[in-house]
What does this fold into?
Amino acid sequence: MSIVERDTTAAAVPALPARRVHVLRAAGVSLVLVTAADGLPEVLHWGRDVGPVDVADTDELLLALGRPISPSAFDAPWPLTVLPTERDGWEGRPAIAGHVEGLPLVPRWRDVEVTSTSREAVVTADSEELALRSVFALDDAGVLRVRHTVTNRGVRAVHLQALEAVLPVGERVSEVFDLAGRWTRERTPQRRALPQGSHARESRRGRTGHDAPTLLVLGTPGFDDASGEVWAVHLAWSADSVHRHDVLAEARPVLGAGELLRAGEVVLGAGEDFTAPDAVFVWSDEGLDGMSARLHDSLRARPGHPNRPRPVVLNTWEAVYYRQELAPLVALAETAADIGVERFVLDDGWFLGRRSDDTSLGDWRVDPSVWPDGLRPLVDRVRDLGMEFGLWFEPEMVSPVSELAVAHPEWLLQRPDDDVRTWRNQYVLDMANPLARAFVLESMSAVIGEHHVDFVKWDMNRDIVHAVHAGRAGVDAHTRGVYALMDSLRARHPWLEIEACASGGGRVDLGVLERTDRVWPSDTNDAMERLAIQRWTEALLPLELIGAHVGPEVSHTTGRHLDLDFRMAVSLFGSAGLETDVTRLTAEQLDRLRAWTTLYKRVRGLLHTGRLRHLDLGDPGLATTSVVSVDRGSALVRVARTVTGPQSLAVPLRVRGLDRARRYRMAPAAGLGVPHGLDMVPPPWLGRGYLELSGAVFEDVGARLPMLAPGTAIVLEFTALD
Ligand code: GLA
It folds into this structure.
C-alpha cells in the first residue's frame, strides 16, 4: 500500500499507558517532563511558561504531542528522552556513549523513578551497567541547570566517552549563534543558518579557551538583542567541552552541552561514579538581552555572589611589567590612593627570580633580590593608604627553569618521557596529584596568610595538550584538582577574593565562577577592542564580574591611541580599575581620573544590580549599553562610536526599560567629559545641559545625540523626577 492509499480512518485514539507529567515553572519559563511506560522520561516542552498542567491536561498533552509513525522509520513511536541514544530511536549525537569490554554503551534504563517539586525534578534509573541520577533544577530567574551522574553498578569497567545534557527546543528555530575569538579578541560573535544534522563545537584546549563558544544559542528568525525567542546553553566547566545542536528530520531540534572526554579519560570501576559538569540552559522571548538578564539574575542570587561594592583596582602589570622596585611601586600606590583607588594589585614578577616569563613559576616565595625586606614595606604602605592588597599567582604552572621543576619533575601533567611543547615557556603541574596540590596550597597560603592578601589574580597562561594523570588522559582530573585547590584556598582564607584570568579571557565560564569573584576578560586594554569583548562577555556575566581597566593612552596590544575620556567611559561599565603608570600622568589627567573614580563609586550600585541592555539606535557605528535600576528610578547609558555612520544628522537615543509613566531628567554623567562631537552646533538640549521627558517619550521618540567622532563616547545619567 502506498502512502496515498493508506487507510487512516482506523487510527483510533490509542490506549495511553499511565504516564505522569512533571512541570517545573519559574519566571515565565516551564519545563514539562513526561514519564514513559518504559525507559527515561521525555521533555515535552522547554520554553515559555505553559501554566499549570493537571491530570486531565496530561492526556490531552500526550495526544497533542504524541508522535505519528512516519514512512521509512522505526515501526513504533519513540521518545526523545532526557538522555537520548539509538536505543530510544534517536540517531543524532548520543547523550551518553562509551563501551564495556568493547561493547557499545547503549543503556537500557529500567526502574525509572521521577520525583519533582515545582522547581526540581530528579530522575533515577538503572541499567545493566550503570545507575543514573539526573537533576533538573529551575531557579528563580528561570535558568535551568541539568546535572547527570552515572555510577558503575556492575563489575566490568565502564569506559565513558560522553555524558551530555540535551533538551529539545522550539521547532521555529532557524539560526544558530555562538562566540569564537583569539587572544586579545575574545568572544567574537558568529551567526549562521541552522543546518540539518548533528553539529558539535568541540573545544580541546584543556582550558575554556579564548575561542570558547561561551553560549550556544538557537533562535527564531531574525532574533536580536531585544526580540525573538532564543534557547541557549552554557557548560559550567573550565576545560574541554562540546556544545552541540542536532536537527534531524524525524525529531525536534535539540540543544546540548557536555564535557569533552578523551579516550580512556573516564573509566569507571565497580561502584565508581562520574558527575558531568552542569549544563546551564536559558530560554527567553526577549532576544539575547532577555537571555542575559536571566543569567545575570541567576548569578546575582547565588549565596557566594560578591556583595560588597566592587573596589576601584590598580593593577601594576601595564604600569611596570617585570620592573618591580619598592620606591616606584610605593609612588604608584600613593598616586593611586590619591585618585580614589581602593585595591592595589601587584602583578607578575614578585617571586623568586621572576624577571621575565622564562622562569620561576612554581617558586612562590618573595624574591629577596628585589624585595630585600620582603613585601611588607609595600603592603604596609598600601594599607596605610587605605587600600586592599592583591597579588598575582599562576598556581597550576611550572617553569622548566625553577626550583620546583628540578625538585619534582614527576609532578608535571604529562608522561615522564613525553616531549610536550612549552607555551610561554611553561608546563602544567598536575593538580590531580595530591602532593603537587598540597605544595601549591602551602606555598600560596604562606604568602597570603603572612600579608593577609585580600585578592588573588589567578592566572593560567597556556593551553593544555596531551595531558596525562596517573596513566590516563588527565584534563578532567586536573580541572577538578584546580577547583579543589581554589576551594581549599578559600576555606583557609575566607576573606579572599579571586580573579580568574587565563592570558586574559581564556577562562570565562560558570565553573570557575563558582569559586572566583570576577574574570579578566582580555589582555587587551584597548578600549575600542574592549567595547566588543566586554559586550559579549556580558552575554553571560553581569558587569560586576567583568574586570575593566583604564589602560595607557597607547595600547600595547594594538598600538592604538585613545583619549582618556573614552577609556574611562568603557571601563566604567564593569568591575572598574586602572592599569597604567599613573605617576607619569599630568595633574589635569589625575583630576579627571579622580572625578571618574568618584563617579564609579556613585553609580556602581546601579551598574552592579540593574538590568543591562544593548540598544540598537539604527547607526551601525554606535555601541550603546544601558543599565536601568531595579526600581527604574535611575539609569546610565553609554553611547560609544567605533566608526563613522551613514548619517550626518546623529540618530536619537531611544532608551528601553524606563518607567513609561514617570518623568526623567537626562544629563551627561558628572565626572566624565562631554565630547565636542562633529556637529557645528550641538543638539539644543546638550547646550542647556539636560533634558526632561517621560519614560514613554525617551523610549519611543528619544533625544537627538551629538554626532560623536570615532573613539569618543558620551555617558548619560537618567534620574526620575517623581
Ligand atoms: C597574563 C595576564 C596578564 C598579566 C601577565 C603577567 O598574560 O593575562 O594580565 O598578568 O600574564 O605575566
The longest strand covers residues 130-138. The CA atoms of residues 6 and 71 lie 11 Å apart.
